[in-house]
């Protein structure tokens, strides 16, 4: 038996469906007849018959809800078309903000500032509660009773190799922020400790751990749990339940067909808007930092607005070109290249910086972060007073809102590249692995920044945030070359994020189309660039703050959508065919073993025979309930259990001997 009570013996593929009906019941039987066989073989065969036959269909259509193997959306025959109301209303919203910022920047600044104050002051608690809820929910899915459910058909293998999968996760999910905030955010906390670390001496060695811990709290497991929630929900709905890859479709278990009407349109419009505003922030950050890097590398004076607009236009052209080249040729290649560049920068800083200090700091930070995690999760304005409220509003709540706003496009992208993974593999890799990489990155880059501040005091004299990374590199050898590499990495980081965002927004506007039209993709890519350019040029130094305000305001209603997604996904998983089979197996074994002991003592085997209605292994389930199988039979009526059998190797907890760790059919082993 596996740890969740499910049999771990490999049951093999189910036998063809028997024509006769009846509810399966496992009873105790006498000693096996026929030629003598080893006792273990007899038990294994008996167990296999129980697991294979207790769910034999007793319905005219021949499809039992426990035998449905899963269904990819591409096999449903769905036709994709432009969702005109979603496209038009979302485009109007983007155009309105662009015009507002161009012709009334002062008014936009005042209104967005007031709205931002409301979000951080009055509903910041909601984002804090949501962050904890999402983190706990994803751990429950990944390591609880649902962990063996596959994000695809029962026999589906992963499409991408694990290395490429992690590279794409990392590059598209975090991006420019690692460069922009890598040395600067720990430095900020080092010089002005967060309220939770009140009592420590600012600038001390103890403050080094505190500063990096607070940074990892914002960039680590919580952020990736948000991504995993939407990514896993979309992958499950699209590749196992045959639904469209849309935010609105995730709510179908709760709202049914209403998700195809105005309610669904509102959800999809919100998804487009929060995606556009959040990525526009990255575009603004990227433009500012590339401009700063260009000034440092070339020795030129400050760049004006024309240069900023030119950088934005160039980035827009690059990521739109990448977007139309296709996810495999564009994103995958760029992600792998950037992982190498970022890794080289990290190793270079480790080797040329305070190497011994950093090597000691990496495991130390990991342990102190884990020990401080509960306290970090529990900090609030109520316990810390006005100072804590200000800190959380300016930092923690802002980050939670930012991750919420990034979930539609990063989540949908993660869904595309995670098909065929089990929930356990998905949750572990999406949450733990990138968080560990972020921990090492912030410890090396942030730790070096803090060491330089302790030694020279130069870092705190940097004029603005976008200069901090280049100031740090300037204190190390080969600063000209490394600054150039960092600029290239920033460009690639943004291209991967902008590429994904453009494709995802256009896909949402075309009802989840996997290959949206070129003009549609280009429109949303240009829209992001226009928003960033208008606000950066029109409002000067306050531009980035306005972008952040717009993002947080749009993230609030979408945070409510995430709550509904958790409820809908949990409802879906509770009636997943694999879970139904596990429940059948538990009931059959319980009844059979009890009856065997009572009737035959120590020596008995298990067999399957019809039982009276309401008394067999499936008495707990109404298999005629349309909610359990109509989603499958309505779009794949030809797919019966004999043709597409469920229950292959590994179903009940054992590893699938045929699965390759490196990926699917076109993974490294096949290329």
TrEMBL record:
Bilayer topology annotation: Multi-pass membrane protein
Signal peptide as annotated in the record: none
One of the record's GO molecular function terms: transmembrane transporter activity
Keyword Membrane: yes
Annotated compartments: Cell membrane
Superkingdom classification of source: Bacteria
Stretches that traverse the bilayer: 84-103, 123-143, 163-182, 222-239, 263-286, 306-327, 339-362, 397-415, 427-452, 478-497, 518-538, 550-570
Biased composition (Low complexity): 636-646
Annotated coiled-coil segments of the chain: none
Region Disordered, residue ranges: 1-45, 631-671
Keyword Metal-binding set for record: no
InterPro entries cross-referenced by the UniProt entry: BCCT_CS (IPR018093), BCCT_transptr (IPR000060)
UniProt GO cellular component terms: plasma membrane
Residue ranges, compositional bias (Gly residues): 660-671
Broad class of the protein's primary localization: membrane
Keywords: Cell membrane, Membrane, Transmembrane, Transmembrane helix, Transport
Family (UniProt): Belongs to the BCCT transporter (TC 2.A.15) family.
Protein name: Choline transporter
Organism: Sediminivirga luteola
Lineage: Bacteria, Bacillati, Actinomycetota, Actinomycetes, Micrococcales
